[in-house]
Amino acid sequence: MKKALRSLVVFFAAIFVLAGCSNSSSSAAKSSSKPNQIVVTYQLKQNGKAFAKKKITQPKKSVVMTGLKKGWSVKASKGFITEIAGKKQNVAKKTYWLYTINGKMAKKGATTQPVKNHDKVVFDLSVTK
């Protein structure tokens, strides 16, 4: 009985040690494999309803447009985004692409607004007053 109990304790101790080693080494490998990269979540909406979402890996010192173009086809004119993923703005109906970062309205254009790791960028094609 004592031998069986001792064997079980040794077995579980070995499992915990091996599990601890494998987790730390794999997370270290993940962080060192792309040291100059960040992950930004992009979501596309139309009239407030989400239709696409992607996590985009992009360079550390990049802007909103970098990840957007990496994830979807994008058209712009005079510094304004006019089409994303085949969905176009409509000037006559006053529907435009606007975006937020982490829930706050952006203060810069997509070509100049920097992004940080784990930012959440939401583009919404909706009527603007």
UniProtKB/TrEMBL annotation:
Residues 62-126 form the Transcobalamin-like C-terminal domain. Residues 1-19 form the signal peptide. PROSITE patterns: PROKAR_LIPOPROTEIN. It comes from Lacticaseibacillus zeae subsp. silagei. InterPro entries: Transcobalamin-like_C. This is DUF4430 domain-containing protein. Keywords: Signal.
